[in-house]
Design goal:
two-stranded antiparallel ribbon, nine-stranded mixed sheet, 4 helices, 29% strand, 237 residues, alpha+beta
Length: 237
């Protein structure tokens, strides 16, 4: 999923590549998105790269390649070619997620599924998970697939370059294994829980942040247990 700014930047880069064959400069990107500094562009590009939407080409200045586009890009691109800023519904959902809804698994209209909101998870220094199975959150059915799912509130900023901010609500598919590079809920030493990107390094497991201010932590395989993988994100503006 992309935030609004990530989406706008991706469309802008793709349009410029289509028109001139050259990716825009950081200054041009900053002006196009109305940002005050280039550091915000660096974070947006890192987030798009991590999600597999763009690729940086080595040994070439200002070299970006668009790998793929969101499903609704055709409409946005059409508006962009007409010289208008693309209007779209962001892939993060706005709303008051603290309001408890009925405990039914699915709403009468079949549009929302109730997931247990189990508590807060650290995207910085690990903290103990707060389990509260009595609290639920309504989630569009299209956000989840088969299997068991739950939601957690993010605390911390160590995953901001992956587009995960403090206060976001992440949607997790329960599982005990994950592919290399996936963002997972990991329990360390059976009592600390954190949201990080999982990397296997030989016989060790690395939990990587998406913020240069935090360090990667490396553990033996017997110290880390996967409790689920990230499949979605909700955000309250």
């Amino acid at each position: 999923m992309l935030t609004r700014k990530q989406y706008e930047l991706l469309i802008f880069i793709n349009r410029r590549l289509s028109e001139s064959g050259v990716s825009p400069s950081f200054e041009e990107m900053k002006e196009a998105l109305g940002l005050k500094s280039k550091s915000g562009i660096h974070r947006l590009i890192s987030g798009l790269e991590e999600r597999g939407f763009i690729r940086r080409l080595p040994h070439r200045a200002r070299a970006l390649e668009v790998v793929r586009l969101p499903e609704d890009t055709a409409y946005a691109a059409q508006r962009s070619r007409a010289g208008e800023r693309a209007r779209f519904s962001p892939t993060v959902i706005r709303g008051d997620f603290k309001a408890a809804l009925p405990s039914a698994a699915t709403s009468d209209a079949g549009e929302a599924t109730q997931l247990p909101l189990l508590g807060r998870i650290a995207a910085g220094t690990p903290i103990e998970a707060l389990r509260d199975p009595t609290t639920t959150i309504g989630v569009p059915q299209s956000f989840i697939g088969k299997g068991e799912h739950y939601a957690l509130e993010v605390a911390g900023d160590s995953m901001i370059d992956a587009g995960i901010l403090d206060g976001d609500t992440v949607l997790i598919q329960r599982c005990d294994t994950a592919e290399n590079g996936q963002i997972v809920v990991a329990i360390i030493d059976d009592n600390e829980v954190t949201l990080k990107r999982l990397r296997r390094r030989g016989d060790s497991i690395a939990l990587e942040p998406a913020n240069k201010d935090y360090e990667t932590r490396i553990f033996g395989p017997d110290r880390v247990k996967v409790q689920g993988k990230l499949i979605g994100l909700l955000r309250r503006y």
